[in-house]
Specification:
MetI-like fold, mainly alpha, 2 domains, 10 helices
Length: 257
């Protein structure tokens, strides 16, 4: 069989496997595709009738909550980045040669990474009550594991040549770290931190819906009170805020290249 024929067979097998997985998932969940197709026009009609045009009359009163959402996303990203930097260096083989400590730090970071932010928020609400402290702590704990692993992988990907040359010249560990590893690590650190900021801006809105502070709780409140047009105005503002964050982050990344 020629190489092109083998590729076609593999692609066909992959496509059939994907279709089989989708069919199995729909069957297990008892979801009828026909119901989905019928629901789309009903939802579109409901959306147009109730959410449009948006009502911006009360938007000024929500500005403090919007600012709160932005600031605890920024604070959560900064705090988690600093903590993850420590964990990342403990996990990385390039910066930590003590295997037991490295494995312990990896397990702790994995626990943080595998518990969703919403679960952290739901647990913390019972401890601290409703407020921005819950959102901040949930973002820190939820982001810590992701950034720790990302930082560790970035550190492991740094070529060892410069560090080995410094070690051969008798440089101490702090000198190797600050002069051999950090200059190569900083661009990746900035990129991953900015990426987590994008995620946290979105997450901070969702966290508000479980009482973790910010504007999310007002979106949910308006929906529950059937104030759909007012909720739509907040959705538009939040969407614009997220898009502006992405644009700003992309500009920073371009300048760092």
């Amino acid at each position: 069989m020629r190489l092109s024929d083998k590729s076609r067979v593999k692609n066909a097998a992959a496509a059939l496997g994907l279709i089989a997985v989708i069919v199995a998932a729909f069957t297990y969940l008892k979801v009828n595709p026909r119901d989905i197709l019928l629901a789309v026009p009903r939802f579109a009609g409901f959306f147009v009738r109730n959410f449009l045009p948006p009502d911006f009359s009360s938007l000024a009163s929500y500005i403090p909550l919007i600012a709160e959402t932005i600031f605890f996303a920024l604070a959560g990203t900064c705090v988690s980045s600093l903590l993850a930097l420590v964990f990342g260096f403990l996990i990385s083989e390039r910066t930590n040669s003590i295997a037991p400590l490295r494995h312990t730090a990896r397990v702790v970071a994995s626990v943080f990474r595998n518990i969703p932010v919403m679960v952290w928020a739901a647990l913390l609400v019972y401890i601290f009550g409703i407020g921005s402290l819950v959102g901040l702590c949930a973002l820190v704990l939820g982001t810590l594991g992701l950034l720790a692993r990302s930082y560790a992988e970035s550190a492991d990907g740094i070529p060892a040549g410069k560090a080995e040359a410094l070690r051969a010249c008798g440089a101490s560990y702090p000198q190797i770290l600050f002069h051999g590893l950090l200059p190569e690590f900083i661009p990746s650190w900035v990129n991953w931190t900015l990426f987590s900021l994008e995620i946290n801006i979105r997450a901070s809105v969702i966290l508000g819906m479980v009482g973790a502070g910010g504007i999310g709780i007002m979106v949910q409140t308006n929906l529950r009170l059937f104030k759909y047009a007012e909720a739509m105005s907040l959705i538009i503002v939040l969407t614009a805020m997220i898009l502006l964050t992405e644009l700003a982050v992309n500009q920073i990344r371009r300048r760092l290249k």
